[in-house]
Amino acid sequence: MPELPETETIARDLDRAISGARITSVDVNRADVLREVTARQLAKRVGGVAVDRAWRRAKLVVLDLSSGDRLVVQPRFTGALLIDDGSLVPELLEYSTMQFSLDDGRKLHYRDVRRLGTVALMNPARFDEYTSSLGIEPLDPAFTGNHLSLLLRRSRQAVKKVLMDQRALAGVGNIYANEALWRAGIDPSRTADRVGLGEADALRNAIVDVLSESIALRGTSFRDYRDASGGRGGFVERLQAYGREGQPCARCGRRLIGTHAIDGRTTVLCANCQK
After folding, report:
1. Which of 158, 178, 162 has its CA nearest to residue 222?
2. Could you say which of 45, 56, 59, 204 is catalytic?
3. What total number of domains does the chain contain?
């Protein structure tokens, strides 16, 4: 967390709000979040440079700069990119690790409570190398039921673990893997190679639908996730599995089960509906 819908929301917000803006300076408060560049190098390479566009790859937020460099942010658990025009509440800026000053007087903050996320500066060749191992984007038209079926048939790991493997499918994490498997009626612990073609097609549709719905509601906020304006995502009200352990299944009424048996991550499922 943040996963694909949250990073997509942030990237879209930034693209609308700061594309064309010029970075005048950067102040780094916590250099331990930096990767592939020092604070001094970062300040030198982004000073006076414009933001051409913001976009997402997997769970990364990418800012293309007019210099050719790319600012690559991986928020991980508690990271957020916040635009401050002077109206953000002080609490949201308490954990700011760095501030990019823009030529219109606004600031772009990278806030990270636990400082497990990263901010890197890369040229395009390095970015291509860095992302070369990432799998297909689930919202790409090329991601079909047949494509997912091929991915699953190659593995004897739990199907949920395959969905969360960024080398297979980029951007899906624990929240949306739980939700998609609940929607498709598939037991998260079933080995991936035992998912039939029809089931793979239903699972592909569930993945695309749940991600698209969450993007429309600006993501899921439990604790720390905020969009670029500091707002919270609204998809938490639509969750049918994740975070609902012990509550009744919305489909059959049976109590949902919670376990950490799959890769040590929280998995919530309905033992009656998901086979």
Report:
1. 178
2. 59
3. 2
